[in-house]
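Chapter summary example.
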Amino acid sequence: MTKKQGRQAKSRLGILKTYKIYIGGKFPRTESGRYYTAQSVSGDRIANICLSSRKDFREAVVAARNAHKGWASRSAFNRSQVLYRIAEMLEGRKNQFVEEMILQGMTRQSAMKEAGLAVDRLVYYAGWCDKYQQIFSSVNPVASSHFNFSVPEPMGVVALIAHENTALLGLISVIAPAIAGGNTCIALASESLPLCSVTFGEVLHSSDVPGGVVNILTGKKKELVSQFSNHMDVNAIVYCGNDQNTASLIKSNSVTNLKRAIVKIESNLESSEWESPYLIADTQEIKTTWHPIGV
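The structure predicted for these 295 residues follows.
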């Protein structure tokens, strides 16, 4: 290499990847055109991250609503197959997720552990897809000459605000139970650790998940939390975090259309409390059917 070539190599600016949002099975840039720059622990610029707007959220809700009927009508076994396929694809790209977590400040050992737990959590909820209805359904005794059945059904569109302090596991821990139960969702990724969230959208895109079932936004929680909790076509919202003011705002805004507000105080995501069919039941409604005997 000549001295001139060496100077050119040293002066070359690297091209930062722009991590787009994921809506309706596509990767649009935010309509606002805004972005922020993610930095490594050493202060180096590592990526451009979209600052999602209210319009992005509205479009994500439309995509989720359009996808809901088809996803909810699939057999539970088929939904199980799809979640397992996501786990397979994530396992195949695990090293990429590990490297992104390391860029964002995690040790290699912690990153490997989180990536493995994320895969395992998807497999766990894949196993529950065709079983939770047996747990939460019932045949009810009634005094009249009727059969009376109660069965869980998906609520519809669920807004999810993921844990702020995890790169991948927090996002998957709220998405997996929601879609396992037949809901579609819009998830807001961690603002400080966003890289793995958008890469997870790439995993979804290359798996069997229909477009619109999972939508992933990045940006500032304080700008979007009102939209998440106020939107009239959202049936439930799950908030994971310790900010009591945000939790109170979500509960207050949810009254506008009686959406279900579920607040999960941030805790150890590696614990067994995050692997439970009751997390699927959080976004289910119970439908009771009366049927006359002898008809």
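To summarize the output: The chain has a mean pLDDT of 91.
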